[in-house]
Design a protein that fits this description.
alpha+beta, 157 residues, globular, 4 helices, Thiol Ester Dehydrase, Chain A
Length: 157
């Protein structure tokens, strides 16, 4: 069976993310770099409004980049029900300054009937790991179709 989500996303590689069901995803302004079943990588340029008083990415914004990328990696599994984040463990190893670009790579480790586990790493421009993260998602009663914008609904028909 083909996966219409991956087919759609493969056509969006190296393009800014301009269509999403998530308003925060649009604010983050990522660029999709890679996508496979259960995996994706997105680059994000650190803008002034994403930084803390010392000029590096604010921790909550870093967590948002991670959560956003993990969500897209999970979305590629073409599930019928929505899952939601139950925990997000973030290890801040090093920062990123305004103007730098980071690459966030998320991989679904395991998906069960109720819980999915995802791992993520964030890389700086030197390809050093600056943040690591794990997360668990839990299945909800919300059907995926109910959350897709009208222009993507045709993907699932």
């Amino acid at each position: 069976m083909s996966n219409p989500i991956i087919e759609y996303l493969k056509n969006e590689i190296n393009k800014p993310i301009t269509k999403s069901i998530s308003p925060s995803s649009l604010w983050l302004k990522g660029t999709l770099l890679e996508v496979e079943k259960g995996y994706c990588s997105i680059s994000y340029k650190i803008r002034k409004e994403m930084t803390n008083p010392v000029g590096t990415i604010q921790g909550g914004v870093m967590a948002a980049l991670i959560d956003d990328t993990m969500g897209l990696a999970f979305y590629t599994l073409f599930q019928q029900q929505m899952f939601t984040t139950t925990n997000l463990n973030v290890n801040f190893l090093f920062g990123a300054k305004e103007g730098e670009t980071v690459v966030v790579k998320a991989q679904v480790v395991r998906i069960g009937k109720k819980i999915a586990n995802i791992e993520c790493k964030v890389y700086n421009e030197k390809d050093d790991i600056i943040t690591t993260s794990t997360s668990n998602l839990v299945v909800t009663s919300i059907k995926v179709l109910a959350t897709l914008p009208e222009d993507k609904e045709s993907l699932l028909n």
